[in-house]
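Kindly review this protein for my students:
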Amino acid sequence: MSGKSIRLFLVDGDYNGLITAELVNWTGHTLAGPRSELPNLLAREECHQRTGIYFLVSRESSDSGLSVYIGESDDIAKRLKQHSRPESSGGKDFWDYVVVITSKDGNLTKAHVKYLESRLIRITKDVGRCSLINSVTPEFTSLPESDSSDMEFFIEQVQMVVPAIGFTFLKPVKKSVDSGSGDSVIYLLESPKHRLRARATEDGADFIVLKGSDSIGKWNGKNGGYGRLYRELCDRGVLEETQNGRRVFTKDYAFSSPSAAAATVYGRSTNGRQAWIVEGTGQTYHLYQSAKIAEVLPDNETSEV
C-alpha cells in the first residue's frame, strides 16, 4: 500500500482540545473534539449550517470497547446541540467525544449524507469493533451511478482519517489467510484443563483471535475491565455458547493487546505476552518480539543511556 499524508491540526495547541484532519486530494474535512469543547466546536464555520455526518463516541472504557452513534444532518451544529440535551429532553447522555465530517467545497447534499450514514452504519456493524447505539439502519436514497462512486471513495477516506485521530471502529479486521496461513505468524493459547485452544495473528496494532477459537464458558475473574469486554462479546454474539459448556469465536475479532485477547479466552486477567506462544515453536509472544527487535538492533550494538 502506498503512503498517505494526513494533516492533523491542534486548534488550540492542545491534543485534548479540538482537532482538524484533512487528507491530500480529498474534499472532506474532519473536525473532532471532546464534549466539553462542544461550544467552541459548534461556533466553527465547518459546523454552522453545514451538511455532513457525525459520530458520537463514548470512550468510557477502552477495555470493553467504544459506544458509537452515527448520524447525518444538513445543519450539523443544530443537530449536535439537540444531542447535547439530557436524555429526558430528547438528547443523548452516553457520549463524551464527537467527530464531524463535512466537505470543504460544500458539495455534500442531503441525499449524499443519507447514503453515507446508511453505509457507515452497515460498515460499523460488519466490522464489530464497538457497540453501535443506532437502533435501526436507515435505507439510503438511490444515487446516480457517478454520485455513488464518489460517495464510496468518500467513505474510503473517512475510514482512513478517523483511525488517524484515534478511533478504529470503521477499520475492517484483516481477513485471516486460511485463518492464518501464508506469511502470518500464528499464536496459540491452550488450556488442557479447560479444553481450550485459541489461535491468533497480528495486523498492525490489532491482535486478532481467529474464528473458531475456544473461550471459557463463564467469566471467572474480577468484574470490570476485561470482564466487561467478555460480557459484551457474549451479548454481541462474537462469543457463542456451545454444547460442551465452552464458547467459540464466531468471527475473527481484533483486540487491542495480547492480554485482552488472553483474558477473554481464559475468563480472567492474564499476561498475554507470556501466555501466547508462536505456533509450532513453543516460543512466547514476548520472546518472539524480543528476537525481532534483536534482529534490527543486536544486543551488542545497544548502548547504555
Summary: The chain has a mean pLDDT of 90. Residues 238 and 250 are 5 Å apart (CA to CA). Helices lie at 38-42, 76-83, 110-127, 145-164, 226-235, 258-266, 272-275, 285-296.
